[in-house]
Amino acid sequence: MSIHSYRTVDREQLANDIKQLHLQALDDLGPEDFRHMKRWGQACSLLGYATAWIAPNPISALLISQGSFTRWTQVAHPIQHRGYDKVGPGSRRYKSKRFAQGWRRFLDWPDWMTPEGWHHEHDGLHHYRLGELVDPNNAQHNMEWLRQSKLPMWLRYTIVALFSGVWKLSYYTPRTHKELEINAARHQHQAIPKMTRLGSWSVCTSRGRGLWLQSILPYVGYRFVLLPALFLPFGSVAATSVVLNSILAEIFTNMHTFLVMMPNHAGDDVMAFDDKSHSKGEFYLRQMSNGFEKFPQKSVE
To answer: What is the tens place of the pLDDT at every residue in 132-189?
Structure first.
C-alpha cells in the first residue's frame, strides 16, 4: 500500500465492513475455538516437564519454551483483547476480567510481566497509538541509538542477538512497570516521576520495587525454584536438570517472541504516523496497514 492508496481509502466504508466481519466472527465463535486455544500450549508444557528431569537437553527446553510462547501469544493475548468474552461455554476464568487475576496469575499466565502491566502497555498504549512516536512498542524509534551509533556492524548484530535472548526481562517488563507508574501519577494528578534506566531496577524507587516484587522475584520463584523443587523426589540431579532446562527454555522463548514480534514492529514496511487516529475507520486502517510499505524518512500526516 502506497501513501497515496492509504489516503484514498474510504474510512467510513471500511469501518462498516469491519463491523460486519466482527459480527460474523462472533457468530462463528464457539466452544471448539476455546478448547483449541488451550490444547497446544498445555501439551507442550506437560511433555516438556515430563522429560526435563531426565537430563539437560534442547528438546525438553524447546517444548517448555513453546508452552510459554503459546500461553502468551495464543491464550493471554486474545483473552486480554476480549476475544473470548462472548464464547458461551467455558471457564469464567478465561474471560478478560478474570483471567490471571490475583493468585491465579501463575496458573493462568505465568510470565515476567504482570497482567495489568501488559494490558495497559500493550492493549491500551500500543494499539491506540500504533506507529506513533509515543507508541511504547515503536521498536524502530526505541532502537534508534543503535542504528545511529558508530559501532561496527558485527557488534550491532551481536548486541541484537544477545538482546533477543533476554529482552522480556531486560526491556519489556521494566517498560510495563514504567507505563503503569506514569499512568498512576496521571490518575492521581501528580507530576510524572523522573524515569531513568537505573531507577527502573533500583529498590529505592517505586518502579524498581514493583519490578522486583511483582515480576522478577515471583517469576524466578515460580519457574526456577518451585517447579524444579517438585522433581526433588527423583533426586537432586533431576531437579537440577529441570532448572537448567527451564533457563534454556527461557532463552528460547525470548528469541522466539523476538523473532515473531520485532519484524512486525520495525522496518521500511511499517507505517509511521504524526498524529492520533480520529475515527474508527482510520483506527482500523492503521491496525491493518502497520505491515504495509512505508517510505523512509516520511510519515503519514
So the answer is: 888 888 877 888 889 899 999 999 999 999 999 999 999 999 999 999 999 999 999 8
Nearest CA to 75 among 113, 38, 118, 25? Answer: 38
Contact partners, residue 184, CB within 8 Å, separation at least 6: none
- Nearest one of 263, 260, 265, 224 to 241, comparing CA atoms: 224
Here the cell at position 32 is: 471448539
Helix (H, G, I), strand (E, B) or coil at 300: strand
Residue 104: Cβ within 10 Å count:
13
Whole-Å CA distances, 203 to 206, 212, 296? 7, 8, 41
What is the rounded CA–CA span in Å between residue 145 and residue 105? 35
Q: What pLDDT score was predicted for residue 1?
A: 62
Q: Residue 12 — φ and ψ, nearest 5°?
A: -65, -45
**300 strand-pairing partners:** 273
Residue 40: per-residue pLDDT: 83
Cα separation, 129 vs 286, whole angstroms: 9
Residue identified by cell 520495525 is: 266
User: Could you give the angle at the alpha carbon of 251 between the alpha carbons of 250 and 252, nearest 5°?
Assistant: 90
State pTM to two decimals: 0.87
Compare 84 and 34 and report the one with higher pLDDT.
Answer: 84
Please report the DSSP string for 56-74 in residue order: --HHHHHHHHHHHHHIIII
Give the pLDDT of residue 212.
96
Identity of the amino acid at 83 = G
Give the whole-angstrom CA distance, residue 245 versus residue 50: 12
pLDDT at 222: 96
